[in-house]
Amino acid sequence: MSPSHPAPGPALESDAGLWKKRTLWLLLGAAVLRLVYAALVRIELAGDEAYYWDWGRRLDWGYYSKPPLIAWLMALIGWIGRNTDVAIRMAPVVVITGSLWLLSRLTSRLFGERAGFVASLTAMAFPANALLGFFFTIDAPLIFFWTGSLITFWDWTEGRHPVRSLLLLTLMLGLGHLSKQMMLIFPILAVIYLATTPAKRVLLRRPGFWLAVAASLLFLVPSLVWNAHHDWITFQHTRHHFAAATVPFWQSFLEFLAYQLGAVLSPLLWLLVMAIAALGTWRWNQLDDRERFLWCFSAPALLLMYVMALRQTMLPNWAAVYYVAPCVWIGGWYAGKSNVLSAPVWRALWKPGISVGLVLMLSFFLLLPGIAWVGKAGDKHLDPASRVRGWREVGRQAGEFLAQVPRPEQTVVIALGHRYNASELAFYMPGQPRVYRWHRFLEVESQYELWPDPVAEGKKGWDALIFLDGRDTNLMYRFETKFADLKRLGEIKVNPGPQMERYYQVYLGRLTSWPKGAPPKQTGALPEEEDAPGTDTDPLPPTPATAPPP
Questions:
Q1: Is the pTM of this model over 0.85?
Q2: Which range of residues forms the domain containing residue 528?
Q3: Residue 517's pLDDT is what?
Q4: Where are the alpha helices (DSSP H) in 341-442?
Q5: Domain boundary among 364, 382, 410
Q6: Average pLDDT estimate for 507-513
Q7: How many domains does the chain divide into?
Q8: Inter-residue contact 219 to 178 (CB < 8 Å)
Q9: Do 266 and 167 lie in a common domain?
Q10: Coil vs helix vs strand at 310
Q11: What is the pLDDT of residues 357-410, one digit of tens each?
Q12: Alpha helix positions (H), 41-68
């Protein structure tokens, strides 16, 4: 142990044990409540959850927009939980609880067990923590491996089991790279820390760190090979995220800021995070190694995020991993092990900040069943889950249509429109059939365009059950001419809430060939998330067989 971290005496060790138990009970208690909640509150899967679950049914080394780990995890969860939404809901609870435990262990290494409890409670009070522990997308695994990388990297810099620490760092980094592209920033921030901390600079001349980074990048080799065989589609998709915003710079910045204040962090905790990063920058020469470590893994990247928001649209979750280190720092500061925020006013903000954050987090959990209890489920203005409600009933009705076709075992299911139509139908239709998606453009805009079409899979001549979303849309001419005996079977109409409707026209035909899309009307295809329902157009009029009913 370095001289700057003196060994605790017996009294301190006893106190440390008490705070460690408190942290453990805090995390276990929250996890149990979340698991019970996930089992009782049956909210449908979000579009991305169903989308990634569909990836997990066709395992590969790469996918359209993300590295493959989320698909692999979905496949594992589907196998263990028999492809139920309850199992998928419970998975993020396990992952986020593991992340909070790693956060407490990192904080205890730096500042002691009491600080570990404070850091865990602070992170739990972030509203984003409620979302990460409920919706299973790529961010929950990313934060787990980011936090694991922080603790193993710190252990290595401190000389604590150096070989084991480097091996674990390699594993954490590698799995993080397979979770999300954001993990590639970690080695850069690690170099910044080593280069700007005199006592650690010598480590840059040792091969261990560089070998760990290089070995972690080898995890991406299969994905790179996959991308090379698919026109580097993941890189093309990622490039769109850095396009300049089409709105005034102040609007994109304020939107990003508003999300950070209300959806990612609570306002007072955001203020503490920004203050600790700013004052840490101002007092850089006074920071010890622990504080410089935490500054390097937060302040530079957070500054970059907010500067980028001045020129482009930023997704709210992009900065999530850069709030991990400030949580650790806040824990150490509030436990009296860091004086970076020396003014009394800052200490007075922590308890109200935790209270406001917990209220926001609990509001999310209570609103979901509460809105349904008062009859406002699906209300666009009141229900935070309005966008995901109704899919279970849509799947049930779609399954009834499939059960009534002449040859259900030789019928392909096709969804038109947004990729969520295909993924949600695939999950919620009885038997969870393979659902193909047809998109009006030639460009690849989702994983569904990368997978073989039904004709390529030898299903030419099969019946086709087609779901077209929207009342005011028609089957496009170049689509309907690829089906024989096409007829309209009926409709699906689901009203999840006031002034909200999920509506599908249902057709049945025999597949003769797979229809190709058309080039977009402007240079470069729009990102799929911007596709509006009911915007399909075609220069040729629909035939009477496909005209919508009066």
A1: yes
A2: 390-546
A3: 74
A4: 344-373, 391-404, 419-428
A5: 364
A6: 97
A7: 2
A8: yes
A9: yes
A10: coil
A11: 999 888 889 988 888 888 888 887 788 888 899 999 999 999 999 999 999 999
A12: 47-56
